[in-house]
Amino acid sequence: MSVAYGENGGRLYDAVFLDVDGTLLWTDLDVEGYVEDLAPYTRNGDLTVERAWGPVWKSLHRHIEENIEHRTEEDLAGFRRRNAGITASALGIDAPVEVLTEMAERRISFNPYPESEMVMEELLAMGCRLYVVSNWDLLLGDVLEDLGWMDYFGAVVASAVVGIEKPDCGIYEEALRISGSPKHRTVMVGNDPVTDIRGAASCGIDAVMIDRKGNDQAHEAKATLPELNALPSLVRG
Length: 237
Hints:
Blueprint: E1 15-18, E2 25-29, H1 31-38, H2 49-66, H3 73-91, H4 97-106, E3 108-112, H5 116-125, E4 129-134, H6 140-146, E5 153-158, H7 159-162, H8 169-179, E6 186-190, H9 193-202, E7 206-210, E8 223-225, H10 231-236
C-alpha cells in the first residue's frame, strides 16, 4: 500500500502502543480436548467438560494474575508445573505433572481477530511505528513469532520482562523510552478500561478503547471503537 502524507505523515500519532489479548487476538482453551487428554488418568471416566470447565479456566486466570512474579524461564516453568498440579488436584486427577503441563500448553490457542493484520499493515504503511505493551509472561515474543507478527513491531514490552504491570505508569514510561516517541505523538490501544485506558491516560498518553462486546465504559478514552478497522482513520486525524 502506498499512501502520501505531509508533515508528520499527516498523522495525529507516530507511535501506536498495542495491547494483545482482547485487542489483537483472543485466547481460548479447548476444555473438551483437555478432558480427552486426561481420560487415561480419570477414575471410571468421571471427568466431564462441565466439571473441568471452571478449574481449567481458573488455571489460566491464575497464570495471568501471577506471571509477573516469575521473571526467569526456569521460574516460569516451575510455576507452570505447580499450576498444572493445582488444577489436577481440583479435578481429582492423578497424572505426572509433566503430562499435565504439556496438556495445558497444547490446549491453549491464540486466535487473531480477522482485521488485526490488515490494520497493522495499514498503520505501518502510514508511517506509524507499532509497539506491543502487554501484561503477559516472558514468552509473549514466542506467541507473536508463532503468529508471524514480530516484524510488525519495533519492540515488545511485556510486564513480566520489565517487572511492571499496566496500569502502572512505569510500563508506559518504559515503552516511551524504547520507542523514543513523545507522549503527545503516542496512542495506546487496548480493550481494558483500567489497565489500558486509565493507565495510559494517567501517564499523559492518549488512549483508544476497543470494546468488542459493547458493554464497557472508559471515560478517559479519546475514542471507543467496536473493533480495530476504524483505527487507521482515527490515527490520521
